[in-house]
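Amino Acid Chain and Its Fold in Token Form
===========================================
Purpose: to set a sequence beside its fold so the mapping can be learned.
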Amino acid sequence: MSRLSRVGTLAYSLGLFAAGTYYAFNNFTLPLYLSIYTSNAILIGWLSSTRSFEQSIIQPLVGAWSDRTWTRVGRRAPFFLSTMPLVALILLFTGWLPHDPGILLVVVGAIF
């Protein structure tokens, strides 16, 4: 395995910085956004902590699955190519969702 170049290291660092900034911003704003739909603090806390569940359970499982996947386009590319259109559609339609408590079901359904 060859050593990563400075440009590659910078690219990874910028990606990790962007993800960390997003998570910090998300931790602050998501409870405020969810409080529009419900005043139940337990539900808001549960929905706000789904990212921790994903990181501790789902990511290692998908990582192990992708480590055993060998395709013509690579090991990780099939996962990116199959999930990015779905994520783009979800983000596209998020702005048009009605403002009612049913949004919580959509959020939970999209995450799980």
Observations:
- Residues 6-111 form one domain.
- The mean pLDDT is 80.
- Residues 89 and 95 are 11 Å apart (CA to CA).
